[in-house]
Design brief:
The protein has 20 helices and no strands. With 507 residues, the protein is mainly alpha-helical. The relative contact order is 0.21.
């Protein structure tokens, strides 16, 4: 039994599976498309939504250092992802990489984790998008009823209809095809980058140096009864407060880390890339470098424009310009953020459907979901199913309840991919690697350490919820996935062919 749990799927077989007509995705993406996808999903929630939250609650102006810390951790992981994506150009990202290096059960665990990560990520962004749309409506004198607006502060039976509607519209676009999605993303990313540069340039003239004092606010003691909300490292060692101080920077880094998961999503599109061996590393590393630079610049400007204690949670950039007497900029930013967040939402939804599709093609989820649309060549069945589920989730769940849980799933995936690089280097040194992670095993080990450090700085409540989701995943695997695995059935057929006596012989 233990051997079947850790059976690996050969890289060659994974690539052959992508050529089956009923389960083959259309190859239409270039290096530019991948970079645009990366920039499109990375520049989003971290700048437009989470900057105000973590500055106000965890790090103050030193949130810029939190972005740097998260960027370094992501760069280490990105090097590992780039090697895998160029070596195993198959949909599924970390799930597919794990199946080739660690085995079926670890692959299932990481696939189950990614389904949660991308689902909650899409919901988080949809809720943030709704907040900016409502800010635009407020500027125009229109007020959304509390029961139909953002879940933050709404009554218990409220439903964020804007967030849900966005997810459903993007679901329809993804069903129509990847090239259409790429064209829409390119247009929206151009608008979003213009908005970000506007924030940096215009905001630089509105900085008040007094707002940086103190740059690292004095840490706050955790009140009695808050232990469940404190970082896990505090519960383990008793020396890591969750708010402000130097440790507050790391707590903030573990939260804003959510904003860097774009290159992870880029890896899920490997199967739909024309030349993945060359273009995947370019798309992953290039988008991460561009966006980290912009993140740090924006966070410095915004915390200089308005004191961190007065930054808003729903629309910090727009509200900071309002506070300095520049409502026109606020309206422009709200428009750009609302438009820009649509691509983040769409690409996260894209990533989830590709992981779900890859798992169903391997038989670990129902094969019904592995058939592509006869005309559009997209995995329409899982796209529609997941789109509806996420729309409901986005409508009912507050943003603060979603963001931290997304991060732990992403960091867990980074740990598994880094370990997988080391293992596959030893078990399959013969594989052609168009891109090789430098200094193996040093870089992967550093990636594991950095990801684990950020994980233990997340709230303990996040760990509890993550553990529950993983437990449910184990149950699903042993009830359904293990017995329906195509790899397992292939092995049984092979054994049967070897042991079956020739026809006409006496048993």
């Amino acid at each position: 039994m233990s051997s079947s749990l850790f059976r690996t799927k050969r890289v060659e077989q994974s690539i052959l599976d992508t050529e089956e007509p009923e389960h083959a995705l259309k190859k239409s993406l270039s290096a530019l498309d991948l970079t645009v996808f990366g920039v499109g999903v990375i520049i989003g929630t971290g700048i437009f939504v989470l900057t105000g939250t973590v500055a106000k609650n965890n790090a103050g102006p030193s949130v810029a250092l939190a972005f740097v810390a998260s960027g370094v951790a992501c760069a280490l992981a990105a090097l590992c992802y780039a090697e895998f994506a160029s070596t195993v150009p198959v949909a599924g990202s970390a799930y597919t990489f794990s199946y080739a290096s660690l085995g079926e059960l670890p692959a299932w665990i990481i696939g189950w984790d990614l389904v949660l990560e991308f689902a909650l990520g899409t919901a988080v962004v949809a809720v943030g998008w709704s907040g900016y749309i409502q800010s635009l409506m407020d500027n125009a004198g229109w007020e959304m009823p509390a029961s139909l607006g953002s879940r933050e502060g709404a009554d218990a039976f409220g439903f964020d209809i804007l967030a849900a509607a966005l997810v459903l519209v993007l679901t329809f676009i993804l069903v129509l095809g990847m090239k259409l999605s790429a064209r829409i993303t390119s247009l929206v990313v151009a608008i979003k980058v213009v908005v970000v540069l506007t924030v940096i340039i215009a905001g630089a003239f509105l900085i008040d140096g007094d707002n940086y004092d103190p740059f690292i606010p004095k840490q706050k003691a955790v009140e009695a009864g808050e232990s469940l909300q404190a970082p896990l490292i505090q519960l383990m060692f008793g020396w890591a407060p969750s708010n402000f101080g130097v440790m507050g920077i790391f707590t903030a880094a573990s939260v804003v880390f959510f904003a860097f998961i774009g290159f992870d999503v880029v890896a899920t599109a490997a199967e739909e890339t024309k030349n993945p061996q060359r273009d995947m590393p370019r798309g992953i590393l290039g988008s991460l470098l561009i966006c980290t630079t912009l993140y740090v610049a924006v966070s410095i400007v915004v915390t200089g424009m308005q004191h961190y204690s007065r930054l808003s949670v729903d629309a910090p950039l727009a509200d900071a310009f309002k506070a300095t007497g520049h409502p026109w900029y606020a309206g422009f930013i709200s428009f750009g953020a609302a438009v820009g967040l649509t691509t983040v939402c769409m690409i996260l939804l894209l990533g989830q459907t590709r992981v779900f599709f890859a798992m169903s093609r391997d038989g670990l989820l129902p094969r019904f979901f592995s058939h592509v649309h006869p005309r559009f060549k997209t995995p329409h069945r899982p796209t529609i199913l997941l789109g509806v589920v996420i729309a409901i989730l986005a409508g009912f769940t507050p943003l603060t309840e979603l963001a931290a849980l997304v991060n732990i799933g992403t960091l867990f995936a980074f740990v598994v991919v880094a370990i997988g690089v080391i293992i596959l280097r030893r078990t399959r040194p013969d594989l052609h690697r168009a891109f090789r992670t430098p200094w193996v095993p040093v870089i992967p080990i550093l990636s594991v350490c950095a990801s684990l450090w950020l994980m233990i700085n997340l709230p303990a409540e996040t760990w509890v919820r993550f553990a529950i989701w993983m437990l449910v995943g184990f149950v699903v695997y042993f009830i359904y996935g293990r017995s329906h695995s195509r790899l397992g059935r292939h092995e049984e057929t092979t054994v049967g062919e070897v042991t079956k006596p020739p026809r006409g012989d006496t048993p």
